[in-house]
């Protein structure tokens, strides 16, 4: 089997993590690519090596110098996130397909890197107002972090047309079943020629 890669991108708060977690529960062929990042771990809700590889800015710079990333971004000021080549290879070698959740620019970079081997899905919130409400209700970010995420979201919404597929996440159940359908279609299609 040739491994494929499924990218979920969206402005922060649109629901991509929730949808990706659902897909991982229902589809045993998928494995989550854990990114490296330099931000602090969120209290007790996150684990190193499960949610992210939490590393220092110095370690991150060394990995850039050694060309260890497929892509990396300073997603928010001072917070670097990157997709490790070793992580994608590890998952493919285990016989699974990769699923990942990255910001909009990162998602498009990964799509350009893997081309037909990748499916890039944009998760769209019903509105920016609803996105802000979800970020507040999630209760994981400070007021200033929420406002920088909402500000960035307005810019990121312009990239929807560059994705292979768009899912509007209004009703979560409907968005999850659409995501399941898109993923199954992509995985059942002829293997990509790369
Ligand atoms: P992202 O990964 O895109 O930042 P999350 O998956 O963390 O977004 O979702 C943001 C918040 O919105 C979470 O608290 C999540 O439970 C909630 N959420 C996700 N989808 C919906 C939805 N369709 N309706 C209402 N709340 C939602
Ligand atoms: P959070 O800090 O809320 O976990 O994530 C912030 C943003 O960084 C989210 O939009 C998330 O999808 C994105 N992100 C996570 N990992 C990566 C990565 O490896 N590369 C890029 N470009 N963005 C990432």
UniProtKB/TrEMBL annotation:
Keywords per UniProt: ATP-binding, Cytoplasm, Kinase, Nucleotide-binding, Transferase
GO molecular function ontology, one term from the record: GMP kinase activity
Ranges annotated as spanning the membrane: none
Residues the entry annotates as binding ATP: 10-17
Subcellular location: Cytoplasm
EC code: 2.7.4.8
Guanylate kinase-like domain boundaries: 3-184
Major place of residence: cytoplasm
GO cellular component term, pick one: cytosol
Reaction(s) catalysed by this chain's protein: GMP + ATP = GDP + ADP
Task performed by this protein: Essential for recycling GMP and indirectly, cGMP.
UniProt family annotation: Belongs to the guanylate kinase family.
Protein's UniProt name: Guanylate kinase
Protein species of origin: Pontibacter lucknowensis
Phylogenetic lineage: Bacteria, Pseudomonadati, Bacteroidota, Cytophagia, Cytophagales
């Amino acid at each position: 089997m040739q491994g494929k890669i499924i990218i979920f991108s969206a402005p922060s708060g649109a629901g991509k993590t929730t949808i990706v977690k659902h897909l991982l529960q229902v589809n045993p062929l998928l494995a989550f690519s854990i990114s490296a990042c330099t931000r602090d771990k969120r209290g007790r809700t996150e684990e190193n090596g499960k949610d992210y590889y939490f590393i220092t800015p110095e370690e991150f710079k060394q990995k850039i110098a050694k060309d260890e990333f497929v892509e990396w971004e300073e997603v928010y000021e001072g917070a670097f996130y990157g997709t490790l080549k070793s992580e994608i290879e590890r998952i493919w070698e285990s016989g699974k397909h990769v699923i990942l959740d990255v910001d909009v620019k990162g998602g498009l970079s990964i799509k350009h890197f893997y081309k037909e081997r990748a499916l890039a899905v944009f998760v769209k919130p019903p509105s920016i107002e609803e996105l802000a409400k979800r970020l507040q209700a999630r209760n994981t970010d400070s007021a200033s972090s929420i406002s920088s995420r909402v500000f960035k979201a307005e810019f990121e919404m312009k990239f929807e047309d560059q994705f292979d597929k768009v899912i509007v996440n209004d009703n979560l159940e409907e968005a999850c079943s659409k995501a399941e359908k898109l993923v199954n279609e992509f995985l059942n299609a002829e293997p990509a020629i790369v």
